[in-house]
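Database export, one record per block. Field names are fixed; values are copied verbatim from the stored entry.
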Amino acid sequence: MSTTNPTATQHRRNGGDLVVESLAALGASTVFGLPGQHALGVFDALRRSALRYVGLRVENNAGFAADAYARTTHSVAPLLVSTGPGALMSLAALQEAAAGSAAVLAIGSQVPQAGIGGGRHGYLHELTDQSASFRGVVKSVHTVRTASQIPSAVAAAWESALSAPHGPVWLEIPQDVLLAPVEIPRVGELPVAPKELTPRPELISAAANLLNQAARPVILAGGGVVRAGAEAELLALAEQLRAPVATTFGGKGAFPWEHPLSLQSWLEDRYTTSFLEDADTLLVVGSGLGELSSNYHTFRPRGRVVQIEADLGKLESNHAALGIHADARLALSALLKETDTAGVPGALGERERPGATQQPEGEGTGIGAGEGMGVSRAPEADVADLLARVRDRITGQQLDLEQRILASVRDALPDGAVSCWDMTILAYWAWSAFDPRRPNAMHSAQGAGGLGYGFPAALGAAVADPARPVLAVSGDGGAMYSIAELATARQYDLPVTWLIVDDGGYGILREYMTDAFGEATATELSRPDFVALAESFGVPAVRTDAERLAMDLAEALAAPGPSVVVLPAHLRMFAPTHLPEG
């Protein structure tokens, strides 16, 4: 009897083949992951499929890469991990995917069925209830116990991930099921019908009536607009209403940055907060008005709020509103048809607003406050006035270095490029002040806020579209979470330039602690020579400064393959809620 391994042509199909056949049938072209003992059946099946496998060095980083791939493509990103430690290592990334509504399909292995649930067999990686670890994180949990269940389970998980609101899902399959031979025919078509959230007509009519009658309508656009691909509908509605538009940090790119009605993204700013509060009808689209979008819950609307939100748990969770549970694109499209200027005095195309806006007692920060009293003003003038006040406030805080660095990044980055930002001071600036120049081109970890997102996310975005460069931005603390992925970038020759702002510690925590306690603790870090370390991976690297940054970044982004640019700099945050005396 021969003891040689069977060739690919001799291979008898097993549960692992059903997994990859199901993914291919659903339209997947790429999978991310990291192999492990119990998952080898599905990884072996990859070599018999046309799926592209991108392997990262840490499961959490593989999850971040899948997250950005899903955001970039508006589709599902499969993530393959193993049992126990491998599965648990993906949880932080899946939390970010949940917060950012990224459709990640995480497929994990399990111990053989005999060991599930009791801990009595002592299998390596065994957990008493592995799926329980995921239930509070992901959108849905799916389990398989026989090979015949695999295609339907993969399809159900895919459909759940892609139904509005998008989100990560978890599917686990025991080792013996992945390895068991099957007689099931090759998987052909797997019909799925991701659920669309259509707005209720009577709610759209009520919202349109409020907007039609409003003298000061304002729109706050969140990440739901970007995820739904509703940028065109948002622009059309804003122009039809002549309503100023602010975008949340997750909604960057949802509205043209330089449009005359664009309030941009200065949400950590009391002037902007007051402007939103002063709207007699505030239309919130694709945002739950959470901590960051509400200026740390200081937002107190004085007019009516209309909220369009696909995540039912976020609908009216922070502020009373006319709540519309719907996909942003479908709801905005319906509002476009319902909003009509006919018979509404001073509405829409003819709309002008009072020169003085009402403010909370003692603030006096409103647009036009104390000037032009009784003189009607166009909304575009109010927008320009607000942005001028924000610029003056920032200028008064002596933050020239921070603004020059962010401007250098913008100058170096091609208009069509994607940027992925870690939790670092420069990213906090970017949330408010960076123009992504097109929709769905700026991704960050501001949903769950875990360190280490920037570089692996950029790798995922580069896999999605390798024809254009991608920029990753990290601090030195966050960079150490994903430094191993320099090997991944080199292995797949991905066009990612990694800007590491090295300030010798956890800069934002240093600033928080110093402000709160007068002194920082546990924030200072020893770190490597990032240039030498990158070069040891075969990745070209350069150390730069504020004067050369734009040039060095542009050269790195223009070169093929991965690169690293290290900027030693201590940056400060702007004061988000500063008010002038009096």
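Remark 1: DSSP finds 22 helices and 20 strands in the chain.
Remark 2: The chain has three domains: 15-179, 201-393, 400-568.
End of record.
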